[in-house]
Amino acid sequence: MFKDRIDAGYALAERLSKYQGTDSIVLAIPKGGVPIGYIVANELGLPLEPIFAKKIGHPGHKEYAIGAVSTWGSFVLPHSGVPESYIREETARIEAYLKQMQNTYMSGYFPTQLKGKTVIVIDDGIATGNTLLATINTLKQQRPAKIIVAVPVSTASGYDLLSGHCDELISVIIEKQHFYGVGAYYHNFSDVSQDEVVYYLDKNRKKCERLHKNQPA
Q1: CATH code assigned to 5-117+128-211
Q2: DSSP state of 19
Q3: pTM of the entire predicted model
Q4: Which of 27, 125, 206, 217 has the largest count of CB atoms under 10 Å?
């Protein structure tokens, strides 16, 4: 059980200590993953950015991912009975939503190019694993050196689903029995506001800029 997302961030940072000072970047899923990602990035001396990706749900079961859209591309798994018109409409809708998020959280900044980098994807928990699986598949289009997924808590089924799709998967807690939702593993699981997300991203950005200025030429 974690006190809050900050407490969970420190627990994850311990598990990720080997990436301290490496050519890595922390990518946090808004909104709940950002406070956790901030602590991880701060403890490891790494930059933090939000990751803008969202699954395309099956028309008959929205939680079941048939593909994903991100700010750098999309992919769709073949599924019989899913009209092409549905894919086009959902892709356009998600692209507009992600563009709005990017304008809110990355105003004036361009996302880092991920080719050849180790990326550490942070969320506040894994239930089905479908959203993170969709995120991983779009991330691969950027050809990073390694994809690490790190969360405070995961279901056993979600962990098993993702374990073969990334280079490393870390979950402080793996729930193998009764799972009552990610929030049940936090004493405080209050909603994260847009202002909080912007605050954490800006604070990390300013710290990284200071560190860069202090590096010898």
Answers
A1: 3.40.50.2020
A2: G
A3: 0.87
A4: 27
Q: What is the average pLDDT across 92-116? A: 86
Task: Using the predicted structure, report yes or no on whether residue 216 has a pLDDT greater than 60.
Answer: no
Long-range CB contacts (< 8 A, 24+ apart) of 139-144? Answer: 139/27, 139/51, 139/53, 139/70, 139/114, 141/70, 141/72, 141/73, 141/75, 142/72, 142/113, 142/114, 142/115, 143/114, 143/115, 143/116, 144/114, 144/115, 144/116, 144/117, 144/118, 144/119
Residue type, 105: Y
pLDDT (0 to 100) of residue 214: 65
Where do we find the tokens 């086009």? 88
- In sequence order, the 6+-apart residues with CB closer than 8 A to the CB of 64 are 57, 58, 130
Full DSSP string of 80-149: TT--HHHHHHHHHHHHHHHHHHHHHHSTT--PPP-TT-EEEEE-S-BSSSHHHHHHHHHHGGG--SEEEE
pLDDT digits (tens, 9 = 90+) for 191-208: 999 999 999 999 998 888
Residue 13: alpha-carbon gap to chain centroid: 15
CA distances from 78 to 11, 30, 173 (A): 39, 28, 33
- The full set of domain ranges for the chain reads 5-117+128-211
Joined together, the tokens standing for residue 137 give 């598949």
